[in-house]
Amino acid sequence: MGQKIHPGGFRVGYIQNWKSNWFEEKDFADTLQEDLQIRDHIEGKLAHAGLSKITIERHGEIAVDIHTARPGIVIGKSGSEVDALRKELHKLTGKPVKVNIREVKRPELDAKLVAQSIAEQLQNRVAFRRAMKRALTSAMRSGAKGVKVQVSGRLGGAEMARTEGYSDGRVPLHTLRANIDYGFFEARTTTGRIGVKCWINKGEVMPEGFRSDQLTDEGDSAPSGGSRGGGRGDRGRGGPGGGDRGRGGRGGGDRGRGGRGGGGR
What value, to the nearest 5°, has the Cα angle with vertex 99 and ends 96 and 101? Predict the structure, then answer.
């Protein structure tokens, strides 16, 4: 049995942050339940608006950030939809709620939105291989380092459920500094549900000053070569890096004629 871990949860506190930012010592369970209700309500109401993620912060009032690919649908005409949503959340929690809408600039690089797009195509009876390949190529064109897509269920209406997937580029799931975005969505087809998973590698997140430190260390430890072709004296011992019986290169190998580190004869 394969033991899988959520790529987002695996990197929390290292290169990714929590989706709920608050601390509660006494009423932790009630607050967590409130968070789940807020998420369920928003996802149910704005299912058609291309939701990527919902982040919640609590500092006296509840601040909800909705990341979406279609902010116009969420905001509505002159902000009417947002106001209605704010009132509903206030009624649900009994606390003041602030709602912020954040636009996802490149939806083809957001794993949740890519999975949702494939699921919608499957519901519209598009061939699953074509839908996966199209999502894969569009993500790679947009600058992803690697993409992996997987669909599971009664593919093409088959009696026996199976799993198929495609991948392109590098998706190193065990590299903690690799910024892997993971998304899951279910397609509700007439023959049953088909699960769609998507992993997108957006490159590596390096610690601050990593490159400059690395360059300094390499510079300190670099070998100092001798003068090129120095000292052809007694059997050519050469410069300070010349090999035995060499003709004096920068670190020529045993009995070598002394190229820049050339070994052998």
Answer: 175
pLDDT band at 227 (very low <50, low <70, confident <90, very high): very low
Indicate whether this model's pTM tops 0.85.
no
Burial of 31 (0-12, 13-18, 19+ CB in 10 A): middle
Which candidate, 7, 65, 58, places its Cα nearest to that of 28? 58
What does the radius of gyration of the chain's CA atoms come to, in whole angstroms? Answer: 29
How do beta strands 61-68 and 97-103 pair? parallel
What string of DSSP letters covers the chain?
A: ------HHHHHBTTTB--SEE---SSSHHHHHHHHHHHHHHHHHHTGGG-EEEEEEEEESEEEEEEEES-HHHHH-GGGHHHHHHHHHHHHHHSS-EEEEEEE-S-GGG-HHHHHHHHHHHHHTT--HHHHHHHHHHHHHHTT-SEEEEEEEESGGG-SS-EEEEEEEE---TT-TTEEEEEEEEEEEETTEEEEEEEEEEEEE-PPTTHHHHHHHHHHHHS-----TT----TT---STTPPTT--S-SS--TT----SS----
* pLDDT tens, position by position, 56-106: 999 888 999 999 999 999 998 888 999 999 999 999 999 999 999 999 999
What CA dihedral angle connects 158, 160, 162 and 164, to 10 degrees? -30
pLDDT at 216: 42
* CB atoms near residue 152 (< 10 Å): 15
Place of tokens 């049995």: 1
The confidence score (pLDDT) of residue 246 equals 44
Amino acid 210: pLDDT: 67
